[in-house]
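Q: Predict the assembly, please.
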Amino acid sequence: MITTHNLTKTYNEQTALDRLNLQVNEGEIYCLLGANGAGKTTTINLLLGFISPSSGNAFINNIEVSKNTKETKKFLAYIPENLMLYPNLTALENLDYFSGIAQKKLSKKDLVSFLTEAGLQEKAFNKRISSFSKGMRQKVGIAIALAKDAKVLLLDEPTSGLDPKASNEFGRLLGKLSKKGVATLMATHDLFRAKEIATNIGIMKDGQLKEEFIANHISLPDLENTYLDTMNFKEAVL
Amino acid sequence: MFLYNFKYELKLLLRSQWIQLLSIVLLLLFGFSAYSGKGKVAKREADIAAAHNEVKESDQVMLQLLDSIEKGIKVNARPWTTPNKPMAVGNYYPRVAAMTPQPLAFVATGQADLFTHYIKPTVSGDDFALNFTEMTSPVQLLFGNFDLAFVVVYLLPLLIIAFSYNVLSSEKESGSLRLLASQPIDIRKWVLQKLVLRFFWLSILVLISLLLVFAFLNINWSSIITILPGLFTLILSYMLFWFALSFLVNLFVDSSAKNAISLLGLWVLFVLLVPSILNQLGTTLYPMPSRTLMINQMRSLKADATKKQDKILDNFLRDHPEYAINDSTQTRGFYHNYMASQKLVKEELQPVIKSYETQLRKQQYWLARLKWISPAVTVQESLNKMAGTSTEDYQQFRKQVIAFAETWRGFLTPFLYNNQKFSSKDYPKIPAFNYAPKEHNNTWVTISMGVCSVLLFVLGLLITRKQMITSIT
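A: Predicted assembly structure:
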């Protein structure tokens, strides 16, 4: 579903992403860990086609992103760190609008079922987004992904700023999507959440993928130690 | 995408308090400016009506005096003013040559505050060049006119800027642009659709506001119904031009503050700077000769002609044998000399007036050629033409008045030289002035501005692919 071959992005002399090789299959949740500037968001921007790679290729559903960006966007959904919807529209209207411009014509019944599936309370359906918390907005984002019938989900630090309950709920929703066969790539700082929901975990530093694990094969303390080692944080603390 | 943008753009606009405020401001501006314009037109109509009434009343007096004179009753009037003398009729009972306001005169004051709207040409009056000079208050000139044309040309672009400057940048600043850009859509087309829809809804708002204002001011619909489509399409094409500029700025510039400043800069350029520079260049390249000098020259020429009146009269009678009289008991008086000298005065004044008018024409030609640089100048001029208050309209009126003055003189001069009394039987033959308004066609202006706007939209779509990417990330 998501594949990158030696994906590289340089800005002038600076390398933001260095020969990234990544594979996220159907139903997998791949968490990319790394400090700020590690190249996580650059990877997502390249997969979204917002920027062009300097070299290498990115594929979504076996379609090369840089050559057919519009086509690849039909298969993916994206939830940024701060999902901003139209504050003067209700949850239902936002969902209708975003699925509409993505060429998905849905009945009100369908829209309601997607919001319900995303875990939004019924009383919030007809409330304007301006009154929503971040967690509620993320749920609408998930509903947009569900309505779009996305095969690929790209998440850029979606749980930062969420309270533990909302974060946990969000993790469960991703699990549900994973069972539906959605391939998820999530950039995050949250090691605990990554260990809890991911099938695969990668650690990035200076634009390079330094470590890769199958989530079940590593414990949380080991993951934490490896992460700190990779980042050279232990030496820094000592 | 278009259907969803159409559906939700209206909802977003209706739910935005800023847009609601903008709509009220627009309605108030249109209302006040049209009311102010209507007031000026009413005053102009009242002035013309008063002048006509004055003529009517003086005609009553003239007919009474003629009746008394014809019945041999001694009248109580100064001898040189009794209406049986043709020159007394020509000087003391002149007709009104009025430029009646056109149905849309309230839309644009144009040159109406610079020129007079009615004249009473007399047989011995000054040359009409003098009557068509500036008569306005300098205070009025300083502050300008708050008419509908001012709102359309100067203020409507500002409202459009407020309505459209942040269509894309607000999405970027609020964070929703990344979500939008992750959909299978072309962001440039999305911006285009948003702006086209805002243009559509603002156009509806403008048209409804104008119609409401016209209805409220009790405008005579039957007189304007054929002109309204032209007025509305002109305003819409001007609005489209500003939306096209806004589209380009939205695509090229990436923050709301920079967008607003860029668009305001364009407003200053097109609405204030270009017209002012064109005007300054016009007066620098083709400076007008001094009007005071011209008037002095005219006076001295007249004085010279007066000195030579006897000789002039002999020459005049040689040229007009029909006026020669064989009856030696009849004499030639002041008016015989005066009227005979008028032709010479006119001939001698020609070069002076012509040099003044040539420079004026050159200035106007210069402006006419370069007015296309600024849509504001073009639209202002077109609105003036629709209102019948443009420079061309006043030149047309001037020509017609000069022609009428000739007719007036031509009607009375034979009485003078044939030493014939003016009688009540001649009264119905007195010529009347009927103003024929100039026909204007603004279709090309509207079409050109519309085409130019569409080209700007296309240009934006063609050359901003790279800017879009920078914009999203």
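Chain B touches chain A through 26 residues (CB under 8 Å). Strands of chain B lie at 97-98, 118-119.
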